[in-house]
Amino acid sequence: MEPSIFSKIITGSIPASFIARRDLWVAFLDINPRAEGHTLVVPVEQKQRIRDLSTESQRSLIEGVSEVSSKLCSHFNIEDCSIVVHDGPAAGQEIPHVHIHIIPRSKGDGGKSLLAMFPDVPNPGVIEPNFSELAELAKTLYLD
Ligand code: 5GP
To answer: Would you state the pLDDT for residue 19?
Structure first.
């Protein structure tokens, strides 16, 4: 497998501004930040989607997200972050190596929420939730 841009960053052949290096994940600043401090948390294991990662990498990655978001919040004196994953190309992923965006957020920063990703779907409150359809789908999706 060709090393991804992020694998090249991890091995040092492409430079990056790291804020953490651990055995199973690293964190470095995004070169096109949506807000100051926008960080990518990236597993050392090169896989395109979260479900392809080993359980050990998955667990460690979520610890990384927690550690990095805590650091960003204390550094920027804020409470909140958007934590975003584009888990495959149809979901907007550009680099085929799992990465979790952590973007510091504050009130009135102009950033949007999940609703903005689907502008053609009616907003909550505009139409009644279809409870029976949701219940049917949940039955077919249920993980035993
Ligand atoms: P995606 O759209 O795949 O979820 O996000 C890819 C992110 O990687 C983008 O926000 C982009 O700015 C960032 N990125 C792409 N190439 C590089 C790079 O060489 N270095 C760093 N630090 N970030 C990169």
So the answer is: 98
